[in-house]
Amino acid sequence: MGKKALSQSVKNFKKLRAEEHKLTQAVDAFNDAKQGYTSKKRTYDDVAAEFGVDASTLCRRVQGKGKSMLEFIATKQKLTVPEEKALVKFILESAEIGFPLNHRQIEKHANVILQSKQGPEYKPVRKQWVFNFFHRHHDALGTHWSKSLDTQRAQSLNPAAVKSWYDILEEFVVNAGIAPENVYGMDESGFPTAYGGKEKVIGARGTKTQHKQGGADRENVTAVITICADGSTVRPLLIFKGKKMNKSWFNNNVSDA
Prior knowledge:
elongated; 18% strand
């Protein structure tokens, strides 16, 4: 699957950052030459031509005059740069533990920050703010469709529990010399009969699946699958909620369950 095309706003912001990076490199190169760190003196025109920047802009930046476009944009933002970095960190940490935020929740957190600074008369962010926020932090944040993950399962799946399970497996199966044909693995999967609450959320860029914790008390159709370590399988088992057997449940039984 190909990567999603960048929006024009993201492209423009990336271009600004690239230009600012070149200008910063040019300033450093000019100052190094001025302080004698290089073998020859250099003019603004020489350095500007090397890094592909405007000579007059380079001159002003070396003299400490004026602001970069990124700095100017930052003065117009609702949140300061450190506040936005803290918000990005919170979004990533929330997604990592199974509680990703959607657009509205991110707006609420931004407004809480503003209210703490400006008091009850603060001006909340507008709807377009969250999209501009994503543009500024496109390299860190990405949009995903959430995938339900039961809270109980999320809490049980941790490094300590996984290591403990494999230690037990090694001691009582591998070291005991149990043959593969005598080792079976069984797992069950629940399929909610109603909509599972899938929604678009924000997580780390590059993440393939963004899980979202939720309750495990919804009504499910349960599938139980059993396989043997030698590659053979047992017929799957399907469990429906009901007091009486419905013959229609066996229609189109392609899995021979």
